[in-house]
Amino acid sequence: MDTEFDFDRVIDRRGTDATKYAELDEKFGRSDLLPLWIADMDFATPKPIIYALQDCLKKSILGYTTAPDAFWNSIVNWLDRRHNWTISRQSIDFVPGVKKGLGLCFNYFTRPGDKIVIQPPVYHSFKSVIEGNGRRVINNPLRFDGKSYSMDFEGLRKIIAEEKPAMMIVCNPHNPIGIQWDRATLQQVVDICYDNGILLLSDEIYGDMVFDRHSHIPTASISDKAAEITITLGAPSKTFNIPGIATAWTAVVSPKLRDGFFNWLKASEFDTPTIGAIYATIAAYNNCAPWLDSVLAYLAQNADFATRYIADNIPALTTVYPKAGFGLWIGFHKLRLGHDRLADLLINNAQIAVSDGITFGNEGSEFVRLNIGVPRSVLKEALDRIAAAVKSI
Ligand SMILES: Cc1ncc(COP(=O)(O)O)c(C=O)c1O
């Protein structure tokens, strides 16, 4: 156990309106499940953030508040320090969440009916936000060789020629599988998009959560071409376990792309953080790196523990070892249960709520994403339940 940060401590979130409990019944048809689905962690939010919010509440008036330079500097300096990505303050703007940022980008950079390429199995909201805003999804599924996933460039070139998409989204690192894309892969995506006049939207919400802490490669940093066509979305929300505070940023290095976009955000004040977002973000980026380093070490140990447990006790399942984040992608396909029987087994036999792989795309049928951002005792309980359920078949 870490002495400074106690990630083994089980914190009871029932009765706190935590979504993982509040929406159990609606999403899974019963409320008595061990919840390991929605992507926040069961670890206490770092103390510097809590103290910053407590300090904020000492003001007697929670009036209109202008984000100080310290807010913008905290983001720019973090990207520089943590990811070696040096960009100007002018390249950054606030957005009130990454998912909301996706919708804003689709509305500003594309037109109704435009096509946007995604690479399933991937974060389910890409599809719903694209379609909900009247744009069309073009799928370029990842390739799975039974052990690991890679991008299908042949398929990408083909659909670009046939469908003429306006935009492509790269999830870097990739949720739900925890893939950390290497430089050569990102380079190839950038070059294909650049050569075909396609804007690249890089969702880097998990960029801070790569286990090997300095090795995240921001897509826009790859080359001049990348900087010219990439719109990046990121946030301290997953990183520091504060997704309840709507705070995120967009980085657009190209003045040609960003000037109109940032003015458009400003017109409706989408670019204005709330008072809590301001102080939480400054505290997170300036004072919580030690917490993050510790949590990443704990998550890597959880990934080791879970993959070893499954190999030893439930060898019919397939795991893809994550390089980032706190989802473990588990394949049940060798059991040949089919999607519905698997869902029933996990909900009604194992009594756990995990993210159904099919929500990330049809390719995810018979897979699940298990949230391993939990104390190890809870993770073991979940794995014990899965093992017993599989044994009962
Ligand atoms: C890849 C990805 N992007 C965006 C989001 C949502 O971010 P936010 O809570 O800032 O809207 C998630 C949440 O799970 C995610 O996995």
How are the elements arranged and paired?
Elements: H1 19-22, H2 24-28, E1 34-36, H3 47-56, H4 69-83, E2 92-95, H5 98-109, E3 115-118, H6 125-132, E4 136-139, E5 143-144, E6 149-150, H7 153-163, E7 167-171, H8 183-195, E8 199-203, H9 224-229, E9 230-234, E10 248-251, H10 255-267, H11 275-287, H12 289-313, E11 318-320, E12 327-331, H13 339-349, E13 352-356, E14 367-371, H14 376-391
Helix pairs in contact: 3-11, 4-11, 5-6, 12-14
The structure holds pyridoxal-5'-phosphate.
In short:
With 393 residues, the chain is α/β, with parallel strands linked by helices.
Describe this structure in words.
The protein is of the alpha/beta class and 393 residues long. The chain contains 14 helices and 14 strands. It has helices at residues 19-22, 24-28, 47-56, 69-83, 98-109, 125-132, 153-163, 183-195, 224-229, 255-267, 275-287, 289-313, 339-349, 376-391, and strands spanning 34-36, 92-95, 115-118, 136-139, 143-144, 149-150, 167-171, 199-203, 230-234, 248-251, 318-320, 327-331, 352-356, 367-371. The strands form three sheets. Strands 2-10-9-8-7-3-4 form a seven-stranded mixed beta sheet, with helices on both faces. A five-stranded mixed beta sheet has the order 1-13-14-12-11. Strand 11 and strand 12 form a beta hairpin. The longest helix has 25 residues, at 289-313. Pyridoxal-5'-phosphate (PLP) is lined by residues 39, 97-99, 123, 171, 175, 203, 205, 235, 237, 243, 248.
